[in-house]
Amino acid sequence: MTEKKMEFKTETKQLLDLMIHSLYSHKEIFLRELISNASDAIDKARFESLTDTSILEGDTGFKVKIAVDKEAGLLTISDNGIGMTKDEAITELGTIAHSGTKEFVTALQESKAKDNPELIGQFGVGFYSAFLVADKVTVLSRKAGADADTGIKWESTADGSFTIDDVKKEGKGTDIILHIRSDEDEYLDDWQVRSLVKKYSDFIEHQIVMDVEKEVDSTVAEGEKVKITEEETLNSQKAIWLKGKSDITGEEYNEFYKHISHDYADPFDVIHYNVEGTSEFTSLLFIPATRPVDILYKEYQMGLTLYVKRVKILDHCEKLLPQYLRFVKGVVDSSDLPLNVSREMLQNNSQVEVIKNSITKKVLGRIKNLKEKEYDRYVKFYTEYGRLLKEGVHFDFERKEAISELLLFASTKSEGDSLRSLDQYIEGMAEGQEDIYYITATNKEEAGNSPYLEVFKEKGYEVLIMLDEIDDMVMGSVEYKGKKLKSVIKGDLNVDSEDKEKTEEKKELEAKFKGLIGLIEGQLKESVGGVRLSSRLKDSPCCLVPDEGAMDPNMERMLKSMGQEVPEHKKTLEINPAHPLFEKMAAILETDAESELLKEYTELLYDQALLLEGSKPKDSTAFVNRVARIMAGNPVEPS
Ligand code: ADP
User: For the chain, how many structural domains are there in total?
Assistant: First the structure.
């Protein structure tokens, strides 16, 4: 016996289970998924046959065939495409969601996939959707161009394992045989199958056929009817992107989108256009309604489907889009590229560059238009994709300013959840204000309470609140309409530089606290890069400030928590000359330069600054003991 029993991978089992329990109200999509796989298999065979005609086995009539056997309870979807070898069947049909890792499963479980079937849809459950309606699935397959006795039979009841066996299979390609569950027998109905094909797969460019029984007039006995079986084509096979826009309904666009994206929700937006002239291509693009859950993982498969003169060449062709627009899905059909183009050939191909530029321009144009004309919808879009646009600001040098214009931020001046753009910020800038200020934080509340905002509150300057982890990397290098973006947490702010009198006052204060600053600097030289008077603090006594080019403390903490090495950078300790504490410290210094109390205060000062930036004191026990001693009225440790 050659039959072998094998276990599914753990993630596969979990996903299978999750899928069956979350997609129960979307069962009918199984047919779309299986037809889509069959159509892909035909695309592959046709593509390979361009260089090796032997795989055709003399048969060029590619088609997908659906057969219903009511009595046996079987629904079969067959194709004469590329087929699978034994190894391929084991790996391809044994792993769900190719980029599937444990993290994805966890993410899905956490996000309650049950209530959001579109989430699980994003993983391309594909083949496994067969188990939505079948309690057993049998796959017969044979690689195109191989011997008939290299066929395989794969079978599973979705109980965690599958069997694989060798069989003889005359025709190339694959039969997916569904043993339909008794309570799902509506899928054994001709009419139901026909309407599902029409609904979901009408635009598939290959023929989808089914044998149907028909009553026709008998040719032998006049006046009598006889039953015959006839092959009927169920789909109209029109490549939707080649039709005129006015000939396509919204519903058709939506179904096509679901076909290529495996999404269950309708797309947020459709962009359909063609270009003629030196470069000729048609492009049908979609923005999904929600950001794909795995879009920030490196396994995320970006890219559009590339067709050349209606022949599908490549899925996930990443060269047609910049990385930061990787949420865009769709197809590009080029008339200029050669049919035998390969992934490698697309590298540095000037035609591809032209298409990529055109698509980038078109998509950004649409987004801008949305912002200007349909702001509420834009905010929805931005909530999903703003994080990606920021990548664009960083990496797309040419369009840095154009993409910056699209950004929205929470701000100290925005009410509730409303957001502000850079243009709105500039419009509301105070007199004498030169730069655009922002603070990075993990949430809006934390930002609002930050001591780093004190001077801005006093002066009435707006501060943008940046909550994405990449903000620190991106925003520091942005200049928008001639105005620099500056972090309120970093560098010497000099917000008062315009004010002559203040500068005089500052000089006086510097002279007054010179001795104290020197002392603190000496004592903390291992921990801080320097000490200076603060122009950002109004109430709090002190804070730590990184240099302008240095890493933001949020980022630093995040990297450290991920176990990453962070280059050591000594921050500057800023002290608030208006705080009575420093009067007191300066007075102590005047009477006793060696004062133990002053040393205790200096240590505490540094720990307070650490706490204010969101870090822990250097030595928590020592910190607590110092505070407790002060509370007990006995600040200096007895020697
Ligand atoms: P996807 O189609 O997103 O890759 P599926 O779970 O639907 O995911 O299918 C997994 C893999 O199984 C496919 O990538 C393909 O390699 C193989 N496969 C599925 N159906 C067929 C078929 N009819 N012919 C050939 N290979 C198939």
Answer: 4
Residue 37 CA to ligand 1 center (angstroms) comes to 5
From the alpha carbon of 77, which atom of ligand 1 is closest? 23
On the 0-12 / 13-18 / 19+ scale of CB atoms within 10 A, 170 is exposed
Of 442 and 122, more confident: 442
Q: Report pTM.
A: 0.73
Q: Does 519 share its domain with 603?
A: yes
Which CATH number is 320's domain given?
Answer: 3.30.230.80
287 and 200 share one domain: no
d(CA 82, CA 154): 16
Same structural domain, 197 and 325: no
**Ligand 1 pocket member 261 (CB < 6 A):** no
Residue range(s) defining the domain that contains residue 124: 4-233
| Long-range CB contacts (within 8 A, 24+) of 564-568 | none
Ligand 1 pocket: which of 19, 23, 31, 37 to mutate (most atoms within 8 A of CB): 37
Cβ–ligand 1 distance for 41 under 6 Å, the answer: yes
Please check whether residues 177 and 29 belong to one and the same domain: yes
Residue 423 lies in a domain: yes
**Nearest CA residue ID for atom 19, ligand 1:** 37
Of 139, 106, 108, 111, the residue nearest 123 (C-alpha): 108
What confidence tens digit (pLDDT) does each residue in 309-326 have?
877 788 889 999 999 999
